[in-house]
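Quick log. Single chain, no ligands specified.
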Amino acid sequence: MREALQKLVSVYRKYGFSGFVRRLAAWLRANVLDALHPAALLRPRRCRRLIRQMLAEESARVILWRSSFGWQVPLFQRPQHIARELSRSGSLVIYEVSRMTDGCVTLRRQGERLWLFNFGNRPLRRLLLRELRRDARPKYLQLYSTDWMLSVRELERARAKGFQLIYEYVDHISPVLSGTGTLPKNVSEKYRYAMRHRDVYVAVTAERLRLDVLARRGARRLILSSNGVDYTFFQGGDPAFRPDPDFRAVQERGLPILCYYGALAAWFDYELLKTIARTGRYSVVLFGIRYDDSFDRSVRGEEGIFFLGARPYERLRDYARLCDLMLIPFLLNDVTRATSPVKLFEYMALHKPIVTTDMDECRRYASVLIGRDPEDFLAKIELGLRLRDDPGYLALLDREARANDWREKARAISDALERDE
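-> predicted structure:
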């Protein structure tokens, strides 16, 4: 209850009174009304037929993806990519919807061997589990380390029904990422559970997380699967794309455009951003969402910094192509030192120079220009601008992007499962 209240306070600070009311109404509709949606009670035969149609798809295994991330969210991230690639490589993936964003009150096909499913609808969930009892394929429950809805009790119930667990350890365990003042109980308890039980598969995204798992439970069922990129997607785009007036106004300033897209949160180095803007030599464009109130407290109204809000995932590549250089200006702390930024690999696939702060995972790639302090960061920006048309550097970006395609990241997980099966 305390974590929920902290989250409500955070939402109120972030969106104000009217935004808070709208989001609270959406949450109640999604998590109360949709959870009690009568479809599975009033039309159980239809729901059972759909579930059987879903389970009839030929696959090597069945994976229930159980974390409240959602599919149709502003930032298309690791959960959707990994689910999609696992389904493409032979797993039937049943992906938990977020009732606030996905508009799916029962189940819906999202692709071959990939279905969205409303696990919050209890009668529907019971129908699924009843059908799965008769299914001989290996069954897994896959969960996200940052999810704070699923409880350890639910994990134990799943294991009692024959499911194995895949724990995706994707970030340093911190209340900052949960948007709460203290670490949610379900987050900390699931972490401890995964570290105690060596038969749980643990997929880590960063070297620091791998070392943490090694120290706590050894190498058994430990999988390194860093974040990645849909290389083919980022090679595409709209050749007739025309930016909106806000972006065109930035272009009209006539300065090199430095771009960041993603969450604006407490781990962002706003002082570094102001240092860059105050040189007067660049336009800094930020696309994304304000995860907390840190942006408003730090740089709102700062000359040369332009926050243009969220854009659809398929449009980000079009805007980024109009920029000169891409940034990841994060503070250095426990969270960011254990972060494998998805945008890092997307920037590579866009063939744009990349300048980041001195994060552990960024050091692993030769194409990334590391700024070790503000002065060095500015020097790396100038180096990046000189390299933006350099054939050798562009070839390096391309090689590292191809090597980090999401197919390879999902394959690391499916290969580990297949070895044991």
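The domain at 34-228+408-420 is CATH 3.40.50 (Rossmann fold).
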